[in-house]
Amino acid sequence: MLRPTKIYVKEVLNLIDNNLINGCAHITGGGLPDNIKRVIPDRLVANIDLNKIKTKKIFKWLKLNNIEEKEMLKTFNCGVGFCLIIKPINFKRIKKFFTKEYQPYVIGKIAFGKNKVKLNGQVDWS
Length: 126
Hints:
The protein contains five helices and five strands; from the N terminus they run H-E-H-E-H-H-E-H-E-E.
């Protein structure tokens, strides 16, 4: 928790220059739902599959020390520090802009809907 946050400016600027992203969100206080909903247009919903999240040890430790899942998702990024909203066809090209340590992976899809963000499944805290 004492490590500085990863800043994605270089990668994001390269993606913008190459017209490869439709939106992005830095996941800070407020967690996934509050930060992602800010960039989702009306009549669309980000369907997030919590089963796909790759949690870090510190978040697993916090969860195992009696923090409710709802509170974990509201307060922490749970290992998802930054979200890109992209066209699926661009995913392979986008991955080339990131180091091996920070490779993006898919955690959801955008669809038509009302609530801007819908969380499905459960994070694996084990």
